Amino acid sequence: MSLESKFRLSMPADALRAKYDEERVKRLRPDGSSQYQELKGKFADFDEDPYITEEIVRDPIIAEHEAIILGGGFGGLTQGAHLVKQGIKDFVLIERGGDFGGTWYWNRYPGCMCDVESYCYLPLLDETGYVPRQKYSTAPEIFGYCQMLARHFGLYDRALFQTQVTDARWDEAAKRWIITTDRGDRLSARYFIIAGGILHKAKLPGVPGIETFKGHAFHTSRWDYGYTGGGPTQFMDKLGDKKVGIVGTGATAIQAVPHLAEAAQHLYVFQRTPSAVGPRGNRETDPDWAASLKPGWAFEREMNFTASISGRKPVPDLVDDGWTHIHRRDGAERADSPDELKLAAELADFERMEEVRARTAEIVKDKDTAEALKPWYGHMCKRPCFHDEYLPTFNRPNVTLVDTKGVGLDRITENGVVFEGKEYEIDLLVFSTGFEVTSEYTRRMGFDPVGPGGLTFSQHIANGLETLHGLVGRKFPNLFTISTLQGAAMPNFVTMIHEDAINIAHILRWAIDKGATTIQPTKLAADDWAARLLVGIEKVVEYNSKCTPGVLNNEQGAVDEQGRIKEWNPRNSIFGGQPDEFLAILREWRAGHYEDRDLEITTD
After folding, report:
1. pTM of the shown model
2. 212-to-126, 207, 247, 414, 441 alpha-carbon distances in Å
């Protein structure tokens, strides 16, 4: 029996490969990431904070601190928590929004929920004693938990809300970072920690005529409930006589579309590439189960999940959901030899996606619509989605899928959206077009740190990063970053940033105890880490290069003659190993007390 015959496929593997490539090619665009536009100029209003109930009025602040943290999402929250746990209390957090929460402050669209199990997703549950109300928490609950964390660790007294950093410069004489803000603040800090996240800078599609639309429009991360009525978990009672269009069918739209369809007179869903949508099966937390939990339960569950998504197949699978099912089914049990493992993994991926497409055909009654909603790419080419109401929504008579066949919209007019010459008149246009992930890091932050000798951080990135674990950089003393820059990427991003925060707090405690003036990794440590990043990256690059364009391949879906994603600097790679390997490296480094080996300090 051939290996391929052991998998349930609707067509031969070669035919599937050809179909995947056909779908990829039709979506290739020479402009790559530049096809999107920033929320600036004509679209600056799209970036305003609609959730502020009272604008903070204060005088500019001139002050010195041991540390400054940029960001009030889970990165900043966990960093602040672990600084406090290390006895470091002289720090402030700068946050553009009006409260803590980060992603969960900005994203309040209807139906917004986490797509990773909340018992694993929410950090520090063991410390706070909180048990989420559902397997997948709603946005209001997560936002509330962010506020709880801030109160628990006394972070509100250290927060500067509604404030944006405009510049950060290294003062060589003072050996400190000088940070200025749009409030006229001038803050000095020994250590500057950038925890700006990866999903905070919204983007719009570069569709011709987008600026001419005269109806109402907004991005999903700035939802206007004043126009729609209702709230994140409440019926939008002002849309009953409105024709609504939503552009995009990614993870956000999957959650928002059912609620828009329920409320609107008619909903048009404009799709370029369909998502892979599997069942979610959300449920309320069993109170008896919650009462039985023992100390350390959340960490154990989170590590069990991480092991599953790292392909370890732990027994039992504590989480037992779509994410763990995807990563545990690698086809290895059907391979007869090690030489067949690579092909078995590909065939298992084909099989999983066949199930996704079969589910789509089973649920969506109109055959043409069902066909258009079927995804033809590897399961991890785009973030997998899990939802029980999205696909049934297309059976509603007031919902129309406008599939642009991978090309995108023709243009936007004063009155609506045009595709293939047909205009769809719309009262409300919602952009569910995601966030900048592949754009330049400093562009996403909104400022470009200037280090010793006038070297900018963007120049440093262009030349190739030098860091230890992606956390502390060489040539930029006392600057720490929590990001994917030489870091890891995993479905539960909070796990990674939380571990990063623990390591940074550990390093700062060590540096302060040493009386350090400056700190940076040794050249050897930075070079060793850059080399370690690339172990296993070939598999990642090979997989992503076959994907339809998206954030995983810089929106290009193509590779150069060396098989690398275009414009890719190996030193700027993400960690090429499995998520649990990255966590193990950080933990082993802390436990081994390798600070004296890998970090160099000055004490003058």
Report:
1. 0.94
2. 51, 11, 16, 5, 30
Element (H, E) at 67: strand 62-70
Query: What is the 3-state secondary structure of 401-445?
Result: EEECCCCCCCEECCCEEEECCEEEECCEEEECCCECCCCCHHHHH
Q: How many CA atoms lie within 13 A of 233 on its CB side?
A: 6
- Name the strand (E) or helix (H) holding 77: helix 74-85
Residue type for 326, please?
I
Q: What is the β-pairing status of strands 176-181 and 186-194? A: antiparallel
Say if CB 375 and CB 353 are below 8 A apart: yes
pLDDT of residue 439: 54
C-alpha 141/C-alpha 154 separation (Å) is: 20
Vertex 213: Cα angle to 209 and 214 (nearest 5): 155
Distance CA 425, CA 388 (A): 29
Structure tokens at 12: 């031969």
Let me know how long the chain is.
Answer: 604
Q: Which of 333, 339, 309 is nearest to 322 (CA)?
A: 309
In 182-258, the DSSP E strands lie at 186-194, 204-205, 216-219, 243-247
For the chain, 604 residues long, the average pLDDT of each consecutive 10-residue run is 94 97 87 68 80 93 98 97 98 97 95 96 97 97 98 98 97 97 98 81 82 94 95 95 96 97 98 96 97 97 97 96 94 94 97 98 98 97 96 98 94 96 97 69 78 93 92 96 90 95 98 97 96 88 86 58 53 91 98 96 92
The residue assigned the tokens 């010459």 is 421
Order of strands across the sheet with 266-271? Answer: 216-219, 428-431, 243-247, 266-271, 399-403
Q: To the nearest 10°, report the CA torsion of 147, 153, 158, 162.
A: -20
Q: What's the pLDDT at 565?
A: 46
Domains of the chain: 4-33+202-280+341-431 (3.50.50.60), 62-200+437-534+573-602 (3.50.50.60)
With both helix axes pointing from N to C terminus, report the angle between 297-309 and 579-592 in degrees, rounded to the nearest 10. 130
Tokens of 542: 């090979």
Cα dihedral 291, 292, 295, 297 sign: negative
Query: What is the pLDDT at residue 198?
Result: 63
H-only helix segments in 446-492:
457-463
Which helix (H) or strand (E) segment holds residue 36: the answer is: strand 36-37
What does the alpha-carbon distance between residue 326 and residue 332 come to, in Å, rounded to a whole number? 13
Q: What is the pLDDT of residues 290-327, one digit of tens each?
A: 999 999 999 999 999 999 999 999 999 999 999 999 99
> What are the tokens at 157?
């007294």
Q: State the pLDDT at residue 127.
A: 96
| Dist CA 546 CA 20 (whole Å) | 8
List of residues 6+ apart from 476 with CB closer than 8 A: 170, 449, 451, 452, 455, 457, 460, 520
